[in-house]
Specification:
Distance between the termini: 29 Å
CATH architecture of the largest domain: 3-Layer(aba) Sandwich
Number of domains: 2
Structural class: alpha/beta
Helix content: 40-55%
Radius of gyration: 21 Å
Number of strands: 16
Shape: globular
């Protein structure tokens, strides 16, 4: 069974929660007999095809970006070629240019779409895009939403409800590196332990400007691991607030990221808009048995982090509420540890990569069976 994943960006060019989701799908569906390829534009690809985590990654050149939408003219011909290889085409939404690719190529194969997020920020452009979006969503064979919370609060998904399934994102701990002793010692020497950790791309909706306001004068450290569009602005804010307890770690290796998780007191995830549809960082924190702090934005973050069970959920955009939650976990280590244990238990029950991969593999098989049955019926009708 050959599955082609299609998204606007991917490893090794970029890293983030959605890229990690695709990587986990590629790795963990392999045991179900699934061979995967990924097509994702890259700004300056050194090679058109690279291997990453066991999959071939095809990198058409990025032409330009418009309102965060990657456009790649080279991907039109590449997609048609890869479509011929695939048994199933698996889109990851949102990427409006994928809608165009779908319309131009009209795949004969079954198609599935993982709906990661509504389009939140580009309200004017989304009105123009809406007819194409609805046509695209209406034409794919299955839509997967990553949490029941997001399905319940989406303005888009209910109209396609008959073909929507909910499959939470999952991670397998075995696909992450074990940090070396030297990695752990480097974190202890440079940062310490029992800090609060944020990991992710530094984007506008992550709420890090609110987190910086929250930790002024706090007796604990906050480590921000990652880079992104708002990095310079956030560092300027930290300087103006004279925050000596905030460390911008920048892009870190996977092994160093795991070391940071292991030595942290807990994960703080202040995203305050629905653009944050799930929060893979929260899932990573749960996987390593850490208590979680997140905000209630009506998305999958509150499916991962259950208030007063696996961590603390606070109102979005509130620096005082974030500070109170961090104070609570800092001042009560036994409570923090108990929440972390329950977070790990919930991860084991709902969010492993094996669970996610098994459910997707089942959908893939069902789509192929339906496709074969429809082709057989069409053949009979023609005769």
């Amino acid at each position: 069974m050959k599955v082609l994943h299609v998204y606007r960006t991917y490893y090794p060019s970029t890293q983030g929660g959605l890229e990690e989701t695709i990587r986990q799908l590629c790795l963990n569906t392999a045991s179900h007999g699934v061979e995967t390829r990924v097509m994702a534009p890259a700004a300056d690809p050194s090679r058109k095809v690279v291997r990453y985590s066991g999959s071939r990654v095809y990198q058409p050149r990025l032409s330009f970006e418009l309102a965060s939408c990657s456009v790649s003219w080279e991907s039109v011909t590449m997609f048609r070629r890869l479509q011929g290889w695939a048994d199933i085409v698996h889109y990851h939404f949102p990427w409006p240019f994928a809608d165009v690719l779908h319309e131009l190529a009209r795949p004969n194969q079954p198609t599935i779409l993982t709906y990661h997020s509504d389009i939140v920020r580009q309200k004017l452009l989304s009105k123009i895009y809406k007819p194409l979006m609805n046509r695209f969503l209406g034409s794919v064979n299955r839509i997967v939403c990553t949490s029941p919370n997001y399905f319940a609060t989406s303005d888009v998904l209910p109209r396609f409800g008959e073909k929507v399934e909910v499959i939470p994102i999952g991670l397998n701990e075995s696909t992450y590196p074990q940090p070396r002793t030297s990695d752990l010692e480097a974190v202890r020497a440079g940062i310490g332990e029992n800090f609060f950790l944020f990991v992710g791309v530094l984007r506008y909706y992550k709420g890090l400007h609110i987190l910086l306001d929250a930790v002024k004068g706090a007796p604990y450290k906050v480590v921000i691991a990652g880079s992104g569009p708002t990095e310079a602005e956030l560092k300027s804010q930290a300087r103006s607030l004279d925050l000596s307890n905030v460390i911008f770690a920048g892009h870190v290796s996977d092994a160093m990221k795991v070391a940071l998780f292991k030595l942290s007191r807990g994960v703080v995830f202040p995203s305050y808009l629905r653009s944050e549809a799930f929060g893979v960082t929260l899932l990573e924190g749960a996987m390593y048995g850490k208590p979680l702090i997140s905000t209630e934005v009506g998305s999958g973050t509150s499916h991962v982090n259950v208030d007063n069970e696996t961590g603390i959920v606070v109102p979005p955009g509130s620096a005082p509420a974030l500070r109170k939650a961090m104070n609570q976990l800092h001042d009560n280590p036994d409570t923090a540890a108990a929440m972390g244990r329950r977070a790990r238990e919930r991860y084991d029950m709902l969010f492993t990569g094996d669970l996610m991969a098994g459910r997707y593999a089942e959908i893939y098989r069902t789509l192929l069976e339906e496709h074969a049955s429809n082709n057989a019926l069409a053949s009979v009708d023609r005769s």
